Amino acid sequence: MNELAVFTGNAHPELAQQICSHLGVPLAPTRVKRFSNDCLEVQLQANCRAQDVFIIQPLTAPVQDNLMELMLMLDAARGASAARITAVIPYYSYARSDKKDAPRISLGGRLVADLLATAGANRVLTMALHSPQVHGFFSVPVDQLHALDELAAHFRAYDLSNAVVVSPDLGNAKNAAAFGKRLGLPVAAGAKERINDTTVRISTLIGEVRNRDVIVLDDEIASGGSILELLQHLRAHGARSVRVATTHGVFAGEAIARLAAEADILEIVCTNTVPIAAGKRHPKLTVLSVAPALAEAIRRINSGESVSALFYSEPELPKATGTAG
């Protein structure tokens, strides 16, 4: 590999350390200082000159602080004459601000993409963007990984002879199809309408779930509202059991407790793109690591190899198994 330097901020140092362990390189130190007027100052405490620099920082809560840390780290690396700077953002939370669905609102996903490039990012490595158009918001190359392989490997340990993959909405149906193909399972989907940030309405369920073991797949769970709304339809249509899988386990507020309290939900599976606080751990929660995938992507970027094999797939959409009322 070419000489590389890996830094992280305060968003998720545990994940950064895991990635460095898989790469076999040290995690370089970073000093973050907050002035009395609440401004941040960042110092990268290792050499960056002519190095391939990777800065790992998911945009998790507190999002604004972590975003500002990331931009200051990018700027510091550029000012230190880094040869190339890659922003590794396992969770790009502003991806949810991806369309103008009301008058006079900002496209936060595009604005933050512009800010990152302005701050010094030459490239972005991320996971499971909320929608396809967000990829196009960036003016620099973007490698978008997914966690479908990690999630599928986990569920292969179960008896899937009577299982079905269910997407909470039609927008996620392509990912659900790719996931179902990995497990050899049919796919169903809910017809979802978002009312506000925490409230959704699912009008119908497309596909057959009666007497089946359901694996609900979503890209992100924040409040858990979509899952709880979908659960009502799964009950009404006779699902036998429910397990929930997601890439980004944000679990805002009491989301984990609310989901775990439902007797129908046997397990909640997420990855560690977002740190899970100790207070949110639950016996029903399983956290899978994406550090190996991110480390391999970093290795390939650094050595000039193709990254596409880690994230590119175009599965055919399987036909729905029927229509449930």
Tell me the layout of helices and strands.
Layout: E1 4-8, H1 13-23, E2 30-34, E3 40-44, E4 52-56, H2 63-79, E5 84-89, H3 108-119, E6 123-127, E7 142-145, H4 148-155, E8 163-167, H5 173-183, E9 187-194, E10 200-206, E11 213-221, H6 225-236, E12 241-249, H7 255-260, E13 265-271, E14 285-288, H8 291-303, E15 323-324
What does this structure look like?
The chain is built from eight helices and 15 strands. It has 325 residues and is α/β, with parallel strands linked by helices. Helix 1 crosses helix 8 and helix 4 packs across helix 5. Mean pLDDT is 91; it is low at 313-325.
Radius of gyration, in Å, reads 20 Å
**Proportion in helices:** 25-40%
What is the chain-wise order of helices and strands? EHEEEHEHEEHEHEEEHEHEEHE
- Secondary structure category: alpha/beta
The largest sheet, given as strand count, sense and whether it forms a barrel, is: 8 strands, mixed
Number of helices: 8
Low-confidence stretches: 313-325
Report the strand count.
Answer: 15
- Beta-strand fraction estimate: 25-35%
What is the end-to-end distance?
56 Å
- Strands ordered across the widest β-sheet: 14-13-12-11-8-9-10-15
Shape: globular
Give a nutshell description of this structure:
The chain has about 325 residues and is α/β, with parallel strands linked by helices.
